[in-house]
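Recall that a protein's primary structure is simply its ordered list of amino acids. Everything else, from secondary elements to tertiary packing, is in principle encoded there. The following example makes that idea concrete.
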Amino acid sequence: MTGIIATISLLVFIALMVAIGIFARRRANTVDSFLLGGRNIGPWLSAFSYGTAYFSAVVFVGYAGMHGWNIGLASVWIGVGNALLGCYLAWKVLAKRSRRMTHNLDAKTMPGFFAARYRSSGMKLYAACVIFIFLVPYAASVYKGLGMLFCSVFPGTPAWLWMLFVAVLTGVYLTLGGYIASTMSDFIQGLIMIFGVVIMVVAFIIRPEVGGAFSVVDSLRKVDPQFVNPTGGASFKFLLFNILLTSLGTWGLPQMVHKFYAINDEGNIRKATIVSTFFCALIGCGAYFVGSLSRLFLTATPAGTPDIAGSYDAVMPTLLMKVFSGSVGANIILSIILLLLLSASMSTLASVVLTSSSAIAVDMMGTIRPNCSEKKQMILMRSLCVVFVALSFAFACANISFIVNLMSFSWGIVAGSFIGPYIWGLYSRKISKPGAWCGLLSGVLVVGGAIIVLTLTQDFSAAKSAAPILGVAAMGTSLVVTPLVSWLTGKHKPDETTLRRAFLYIGKNAEMK
């Protein structure tokens, strides 16, 4: 019964996504419309596009499962941090300036912004390579997270089959309709996610293992008082670094910042900020809250890990099958939650794929072959969407089980590379090309170098456990070395003509000094 209801739900969902792709194809016939929707995306679509790109199956299956099990209720602070720092503050600090400056510089992508802002085609090529190379494992982690859940709902089917299904469906509607199809589907997927999370949280609270909303704390305290410690207790440091990585990391991720370029009017930014923050708070806190209840449903091994096949990555799928299997009503709810996780994953994949394909088709090829026609760029971009989906699918099929660490490494490298040059480039006229280059190199050098050192001196497990710390260190390094090297290389003054163009209509008093 579970499989039949889930299959019917999936077929309806597939038909809807393909229909959106076909409808949007007519409006995605230029590079600007394919990448940015003609910079004419309204506040609701922009808000939902940002929120759905933020959360994927990795958050539910990987982060919420692992951190909810190990930390308890305090893991909900990650969801709070995502909403306040990763969403609200990001919109307040970055949205208006990103939209205005990318308009001024005619930049469609983050590598394009770096090239125009710092007058460096090499910087554009380097940024494009970082995006395409290191977003592949990011996308792969999304596939793996979703594959774990599908295998639980449809036992006996291989995970690679479900990952292939997600890859094909995402590739089809995105290749057809580009950013317009992505935002339209994000809105529908966002509504599914909201409905699914509310149902999921309520269903878990009323279970006898929990005992109702007012018994959550007492129930967890009986297992271990550590799990109701508001600061995470012994896990405080680990919790803090995860909040910083998953919240501030979005400030340097091109697929997230890209949403600010496309909003149609600055007056709509305030509305989009409120909607997006509410969405992120509901989804993020809901996911981690359910993950924190895992101790009430699952037993632990002597080592403290969950006593189930698949360990941490199987916590959430096992919980869902325990709670939502049996009756027809429960199976229907499970199907809705399955669509919730599918929606979360596909929206994230669509953003990553579009960002990665444009890095090559627009940024790299636009530099190597500046006279390439728009028609050829469109063909190349659609082809590269397929190529990136195929590469990330192949990577996901490899025997790599640590999906949380996989995502942390990717976030750390990409966000650590871009966050400094991007934020300082928006706010300060004094950032030089050498300073921006040093900021760009931070992500790869800090995270990559630390992984090599820890693996050689200890083992790869040490590097995996340090993934959040490495990501935060890379971002901090990028934010510090960018202005520092710019100050030390004062003779390399930024081009005044470029600065006047970049900061047109941007108040001087708001700039970083």
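The chain has 20 helices and no strands. Residues 2-399 form a domain with the Sodium/glucose cotransporter fold (CATH 1.20.1730.10).
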